[in-house]
Amino acid sequence: MKTDADSGPAPLFMDFDDNGLLTPLFGEHDRNLALIEKRLEVSITPRGNRLSIEGSLWSQQVAQAVLTDLYARLQQGLDTGSGEVDGAIRMAEATVGRSAEAAEAAAMAEDVIIRTRRRVITPRSPVQADYVRSLRSGELVFGLGPAGTGKTYLAVAVGVSMLLDGLVERIILSRPAVEAGENLGFLPGDLRDKVDPYLRPLFDALNDMLPTDQVMRRIESGEIEVAPVAFMRGRTLTRAFVIVDEAQNTSAVQMKMLLTRLGEDSRMVVTGDLSQIDLPRGKRSGLADAAELLAGVEGVRFVRFTSADVVRHPLVTRIVRAYDERDRRRGESGNTGDTGDKDA
Questions:
Q1: What is the rounded distance in angstroms from the CA atom of residue 73 to the CA atom of residue 69?
Q2: DSSP string of 254-283?
Q3: What's the predicted TM-score (pTM) here?
Q4: How far apart are CA 66 and CA 93, in angstroms?
């Protein structure tokens, strides 16, 4: 593929060598091009295997980077749906016109591609890319930030890929059941039925990456274990990829217990949103405690997501930003009163 662009506001032209990739590149009824035009405020006109991009110089360069990335994905046999277009735009906006180091990091996309049985997953923001790299190379990683940023989903994806590649022998997924001493006992069924609502998001992620029969078979064999935090006490976890989800709802004692379960050739990722703590008033969050205590400790990595990394419906991003802005104003005024229901 080759590109040329004149300086100034003149159109930027792109030529593509493989005509067979143009339909998925442009999207059904040019849907992908329309999304790029809307997000970047450019005008894209395809003519055969050439297209022109009109707009501001920076927008042209971002659109060019997006189309280059999507074209490269298609050459590797990967999908280019609206989610991939959104991710390519986020990555390009963060790197075009910035440091050479940032551009080089974005170009090295292969090291953040996650391959599972059912799908190939790629990061949709620079922070997500940093998170994937940390998960693959770090022994203890904390993923902190709002809902919808991919903290848990990407952690499960990396865990599954490492299990398939034989780098770990099992995946252990755990979440706190914050009502275990109260309302949980009133739910119908046995213990598994009672904790299922808390663990369902983890099963959903697994089923998105492995065929359902494989998920069940690996659970029965012990290769995949899904359990409440309380079940981790007294264990030493070796050759395992351990994910502690919704960790903001652990106590400080529980968090210490979890972190000290890490055994030989294992790695652990702890995810949570410190703005969504459901613990009783006055009880210290184990995630908040660990984030404060372990900052700067060698071998511990923290990846912090923001509303800019939300990859759900665009409205979710605007909702998260509205809440963040409200919390910021309250912090500046010293008003830290109750914000009401924290469920998400």
A1: 6
A2: HHHHHHTTB-TT-EEEEEE-TT---SPTTP
A3: 0.71
A4: 9
